[in-house]
Amino acid sequence: MPLSPLEHDRRYSELDQVMRAYLGQSADDNPERPSQALTAYLRHTWHFRPWALATAERQLRDYADNPPGRLRLRLGEFYDIPDVGLPEGEVRQWLHCLADHIRHSIETGEVPPSSAPVTHWEWHARFPELGQFLGGWFSQDMPDEFDDHDTAVDDYRRSTDSQLVGRLVGELHELLALDLDESDYALAVAELGMEVDAAPYSPSGWLARVAQQLAAPPTVAR
Questions:
Q1: CB neighbour list of residue 95: distance below 8 Å, 6 or more residues apart
Q2: Virtual CA dihedral for 199, 171, 27, 12, nearest 10 degrees?
Q3: Which residues make beta-bridge pairs with 30?
Q4: In tens digits, what is the pLDDT along the chain, a chain of 222 residues?
Q5: DSSP letters of 142-192?
Q6: In b/e form, how buried is each residue of 61-70, taking b as 16+ CB within 10 angstroms?
Q7: Which residues, 6 or more positions from 72, have their beta carbon under 8 angstroms from its beta carbon?
């Protein structure tokens, strides 16, 4: 039978996070240089969940040293490494390479410098509620569901727990504090799931407007 959620998390929770960081990215790590995907994982995890790095190093190495055998494969009791574009015979060596880079980072304290997110995974890891908001309320179906952008924002506020609304306001201010170019803000909202135009506002102007709307006390109907 497939692994229970508890057993999955014990064995593979952080391994899974590392693998997710490679979504749409090249697994071109080598002993001298980590890939863009692993650098993004290290940057985010160092700054937000540094205690998870040792777990990632151990789970990567354990999986490389003890790949699932025939019984576990037949029972489904294993983590299925996603296709990262490497030949099957090179995956174990690649996992060891990732573990080595993570161990080096931990032992030397070498941390990728702070920056705006670079990969799709890093955008969503850093701004999870903003990803939920943009992907859920501003997909390409938004014009069929709401009269305009403001109506969609109001619907989010009415249907979402106030603590999550507060979290979104914080993420909006954090994103605006990065002080990116407008083209980079357009890339950011696209990476986070927005599929409609913010016109007549610029991307950053619209984000600031949404933050202001959600931070204001809700109007009480009479």
A1: 60, 61, 63, 64, 81
A2: -140
A3: 33
A4: 577 888 878 889 999 999 999 999 999 999 999 999 999 999 999 999 999 999 999 999 999 998 876 656 666 666 788 899 999 889 999 999 999 999 999 999 999 999 999 999 999 999 999 999 999 999 999 999 999 999 999 999 999 999 999 999 999 999 999 999 999 999 999 999 999 999 899 999 999 999 999 998 766 554
A5: HHHH-SSHHHHHHHHHHHS-HHHHHHHHHHHHHHHHT---HHHHHHHHHHT
A6: bebbeeebee
A7: 78
How buried is 56 (Cβ within 10 angstroms: 0-12 exposed, 13-18 middle, 19+ buried)? buried
Rg (CA), the chain: 21
